Amino acid sequence: MNGIMNPLLILVPMEYLGLMMAFMLVIGGMLIIMGAVVKGKVLIFTAIAIPFISVIVQVLMNAFFASLPEALIMPVAWFIMFVAYAIGAMVVVRLLFGDKAVEHAKGQLLADAVKWMLKLLFRWPVMLVWVGALMFLAFKA
């Protein structure tokens, strides 16, 4: 397993992978003992699944990048890394602030994006373009 090629393990050095999985198993067992059974089982299952998933992802990524044209390899790799880091950041934010705070923040960001789009749509330079396009279509028809 190559940690550089594998997006699942990009933050964990290969020397510490076995130690990290053993630590996850121990913490998962402690969580089960303390009563957080679901979280403990998820942690144990994740520790067991990481080696299998990482090998599968590495094979799929190698085959995927081998089939891409050379000009698209870097943009696709940057996009995949962006998505992986965005998902990781969302997991960390959910862990720190909880699900309700994250849902509220996503709703607020979506509302701000819609407001920004509407403001952009009705600014003079943009409005002249789409009003001109509508007038052109009206006279052409």
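That was protein one. Protein two is written in the same sequence-then-structure order:
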Amino acid sequence: MEIEFCLDQIDDVARQILPQLKNSIIRLEGVMGAGKTTLIKALANKIGLVDAVSSPTFSVVNTYLTHSDETIYHFDFYRIESPEEALDFGVEEYFDSGFLCFLEWSERIGPLLPQQYSTLELEVLNENTRKLRLIHN
């Protein structure tokens, strides 16, 4: 699946791709400023998030609850120096929880990724336009 969109259409894009997500582990790829956290916020809001989404850059993982008491984990591995750091805080237990996990900068923990995940690639076309690709492995 591939969608080209303007940033002000991100809520509509989230509504379109949410039913297409087949895995609980969702990798978001794109350069800094591509809109990864913004897309996660839009997806989480469509799911029925109670909390506000913010980037977990310094905390590595944020935990959110939905109105139906579901848990969502949002990871930002940008500051992780090695996969061992992620093991130290128990990343595998989060992945094994069955709850939805959104991952930013997941290439930093590559060997720890589960076998099944979906990838949302964001490509910056210009200041207001992005191309989104949904890939399942």
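The chain has one domain: 2-136. Keep this in mind for the problem set.
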